[in-house]
Structures are given as C-alpha cells and as structure tokens.
User: What shape does this take?
Amino acid sequence: MDSATATSGSPPKTRSLVGRDPWTTPLDEIDLAHPGIWQANEFLPFLDRLRRDDPVHYCAHSAVGPYWSVMKYQDIMAVEANTAVFSSEPTIGIVDVLPEYTLPMFIAMDPPKHDEQRKTVQGVVAPANLKNLEGLIRRRVCTILDNLPLDEEFNWVDRVSRELTTQMLATLFDFPFEDRHKLTYWSDVATAIPGAGLIDSYEESLVILKECLSYFSRLWQERASKPPGNDLISMLAHGPATRNMPPMEFLGNLILLIVGGNDTTRNSISGGVLALNENPDEYQKLRDNPALIPSMVSEIVRWQTPLAYMRRTATQDSELGGKTIRKGDKVLLWYASANRDEDAIEHADRFWIDRPRVRQHLSFGTGIHRCMGNRLAEMQLRILWEEILPRFHKVEVTGEPKRIYSSFVKGYTELPVRLIK
Ligand code: HEM
Assistant: This one.
C-alpha cells in the first residue's frame, strides 16, 4: 500500500500527486512531502503553483503530519535569519522520529551549542586544508576517469559520482581506504525511508548505524591517544567542545558529516551531466570556454538542489506571508522552489552556466546553518569537470535517469551514459 494513502483515522490522508494537474489540484490536496512527484520528476509545476497561489502553504492531512511549506526565496531568508522563532531542533527532516531513534547533531541544534560544535569541526574545510586536499582529489578523479570504458553504456552514478564522493569521505576522515564503501552504505541507511528498499524500520537503521558507531569509536580511541591531526575524527576527538561528547552525539555528528559530504555532492555530479545533456548549447559553451567551469559548478548546484528542503519548528506564534504559524508547527523551507523563484533569480527556469550572481542560490541554505562543506563540494565538482573536458568530447546520457524515492534528498540511483572521445 502507498504509505501516503494509508489512513489511521479521519480525515483521509493526502494521496500521491503523480499524474495530477498541478494547476487544478485543490490547494489543500497538495502535499509536497510525498515522495511520489519527486521520483517521477513531476514536482516543478507544483512548486510553481504554490509560489503563485499560496506561497506560505499549510498541508493539514499529510501522512507525515501537518506542516507549512515556505516557497519564496525572501521568505526562506527571513525564516533562516530568525533562529529564535524558527528552531532547528529537534530535527531538520519532516518526520519526528521517536527520541530513542533520534541522533543529536549540530545541524539540528540552536545556538549556543550549534555554534560551539560547528566551530570545532569547520577547520577541516578551511581554505588551507582544501588547498592541501586539491592534489589528492585530482589524482583520484584522474584514476576514476581513466578507468572508464569508451563507447559503451554504463551507470555514471555508480562508476563516477558514488566512487568519487566515497573516496573523498575516506580522505576527510582518514578512514581505512579498503573499507571506504561502508561510508556510503551508512550514509544511504541514514537517509533511507523504511519500506522503500534498503531498510524495513528505523529500528533496523539504528542497529546498522551502531555498527558505524563502533567502527568510528575504535578510530576515535586511536586518534585521541595521538597528537591532534587534520582529519575529522582527530578534530572531534581533541576539540574542547566535542571531546567529551556522549556516544550518540558523536554518532549523530559523524552521520551529519558523512551524509553532508556524500549524497549531496554525488547527486550534483550526476545532475550536472544530465543538465548539460538537456541543454546542449550550454554544453557547447562550456567546451568553447572551460574558464566557465567555476560558474557552471554553482549553476549545477542551484539546478540540482540536492536537498529539496530543511525543516524548522516554531517556538512561538508568528506571522509569515499573512499566515499565522503556531508554536510547535513544522515549517519546511523549500530550497527547490526558492531556486526557481523569478522574483529573486533572473530567468530562474533556465540552466545558464554563465548567469550573473551565480552563487546566489539557496541550495546550501543561508544563515548560521549555511552548508559547512560548500567550498569543498564546489572544489570536487570543479576538478571533475577540469579533468572531464580534455578527456571526452561528450558524456552522453543514453537513457532515462532513475530518481530517488524521497522528497528530501533529490538525486539519482541510475544515469546511463556513454563516453565519446
Ligand atoms: C548543512 C547542502 C555538501 C557538510 C547543509 C545545509 C544544506 C546543505 C542545505 C543546511 C543549511 C541550512 O539549514 O541553512 C549541501 C549541498 C552540498 C553539500 C547542496 C553539495 C552540493 C557538503 C559537504 C559537507 C557538508 C561536502 C562536508 C563537510 C555540512 C554540514 C552542515 C551542512 C556539517 C551543517 C551546518 C550547520 O548546521 O551549521 N548542507 N551540502 N555539506 N552541510 Fe552541506
């Protein structure tokens, strides 16, 4: 049974929007949190509809409980700036998981604890450290690209996007390289919806993530007994704000860094190839002028919007866009919509690799929680394209991509491609 049509009392829950007309569907039946339209790639006109007709929208009957949707760029900026009224606690996903299955992590904390914990780990993505990582990333990119088959169909997601981001994570944590695929597995488990394939329940996911905890605890012990190093585990083990973290908080912050650095970058790598194929003039512009790579990278991240939303929870009653949001209400900030908001972004529906003010998108969020790894993600994408362009005339998409069943992580499980010299 479709989870969003399951009823546990009246009134009935909203159903999937797949195949429905976005412009005539009654507003109270629009439930963006249902994964259906995201997997079917039918979400964009529903975002347009809400931006036009009800930019601060209340969905009362979702299977995941009632919630607000904030659709406009400026409204999201205002909410993110007001952390006292719109809290990141207890979680930034739509589902309120039982406390025993909730992992504490600084993305889901408010000041001052958020600020202290973020400060402890952000050194790993400081400009000097990124510079140190650049050579290693480039070598890894070259090896991956040089081992790809020519003129033969393969899945870009597995062979490039996943592989590269997994190797990158292993580097950040100084994680045993031969075990690096465990990192991707844990990341997938942490974001999986029970019943959608990978796991059957949150209980099962927690059991798997505890294996992750025990693996990392061993590495933590080793690093804690040595002088401070530049990898993330060593930073957590020695940082004054993190060294005495309770085990579940350590696990939560590990998962944050694993998921943060993994899915999002992976899906931007796949999404970029797809966007360039769907916009051949922009691909040609890039071939003619590789100096556009940095700008194109930002445009790819906007276009893909790898995380469709972040959630906040109201700590008190307040007004937004003429609506009254009540204390305790869930509020979803739809970056996927803000990034297509014509009032903030010129020709927002156009993939335009040399657009003006190209970094002014909301894929990385804004305010105190703005993505800590944004420069690292951009650097990976930049190096990848710097190495793709001299090697291949085209990374040609040869079939329909398969998209993830999620309204939160926007990405792909398959992208069939062929390399043309
Ligand atoms: C936070 C997106 C890559 C680590 C976030 C947020 C978003 C985001 C939307 C929340 C922002 C907010 O609430 O305002 C992305 C995207 C990426 C990416 C689209 C790639 C294209 C990375 C990488 C890392 C990372 C590579 C690895 C270090 C984090 C962390 C936070 C975060 C630690 C929490 C920041 C905080 O709460 O202060 N990211 N991210 N992200 N990201 Fe990323």
Q: What stands out?
A: The pocket of protoporphyrin IX containing FE is lined by residues 80, 106-107, 118, 125, 256-257, 260-261, 264-265, 268, 301, 306-307, 310, 363-367, 369-373, 376-377 (CB under 6 Å). Residues 1-9 have pLDDT under 50 and may be disordered. The CA atoms of residues 27 and 320 lie 18 Å apart.
